[in-house]
Please model this.
Amino acid sequence: MTTTYATEPINSAESAIAALTGDDNQTRYYAAWWLGKHKVQSACPFLCAALRDERYRTEQGGYPLRRQAARALGQLKNPEVLPDLVIALDCEDLNLREAVVQAIAAIGDKQAIPALINLLRSNSEQPFEAIIEALGTLEAWSVRDLVEPFLQDKSERVQCAAARYLYLLTQEPQYLEKLIHNLNHDNMYLRWAAAFDLGAIGHLTAAEAIISAKVADSLKLLNLRRILEALLADEAENGTSGEGKSFLLGAIDRLLLPENREVSVVRGEAIASLIDKLYYNHPAISAIAVESLVQIGNETVEPLIKAFLKCKDHGIQGFIIQVLARIGDIRALDLLIEVVGIEVANHCQGNVRRMAARGLGKIGRTTNDISAIDRCIEKLNWALSNVEDWALRYAAIVSLEEIATPETQAILTEALAQQGDRIVKLRCQTALENWQSAKIKIKI
Model:
């Protein structure tokens, strides 16, 4: 999204609500995003009013502020706003209708099911993918006969939504297989959609397919988490325990700092040339450059740090941090600590922070410099205690386990009692259990 600057900075619920009711459309849009991100429940009436906004309308007839208000209300998950969302479904803006349907699904109130069924029966253009997914989320199983024809829809994404709904209802494998098949689709967006559909299904077989799929690691992390959450919920309900937890935790651990093992290493290239190749807009070339720089090792550290400081492209910065984290040279300590502490607003930067956190784990494990170990532990403890990104907190736990000192053991013991996120809490517990079962010697 485009960042705009209001006369008064948006840094509190009060300032965001004031900006939402102001005159600058871009600032109002940002305010709606801010209120949703920070889950400000007192903003519900103002966001509902924004659902009826007529001032911010594009030349094509769309309502950007209304859409963002709907997304924010979905993040707030307050059932009291449901009547306003249902009314907003009547708007001619198709993208707004989709955002409203997704918000209704996020809230999870079944009172909206009749309104969604009316849209599904409509002969006019509708966001059918979102509608079918919402009906599955709300467990509206009585409309199977309405959903089944969408398996033959002209849109493959709508077909996938129907397959997802029907698998959740029937558990029949042919619907799961259709989604897994689309993970290898030539169309990148269909691969993404299939990953999200499989994450929503929460099946362990789906996890194995997601791990090997040609989608971004951030998407894999998000959807493996969703599958793990479903597995934990099933265990809590049925009192069972399986090996799926260990499999999923191991997969998440590896995704936090990926290794491109299938890429042949290009030898004989100068370090400067390899760094230049990181700028190529081609994943295979960038992956080869990353592997080659890792293989060369410590002599790449200083040039990489200089390249990072000059570069403004988050994707390139991510490659550089990946190399530095995997090498684990103490000269990169200051940069990795700085990167972990950067406040971010997009998933690319978030991925960079997670890899930096894993780099701190490697430095803390391999160095004998007590001061450096203390700095690694301090920053990882900060990340575990202060950041919103679950995957960054998860990465901090993996790195603290790797460093293995009495201090990290105490930090994880305390975190186990304080963390509210089930996945993060489970990883804390696993780290402590790993130390005990393997009898790993804690560094003194």
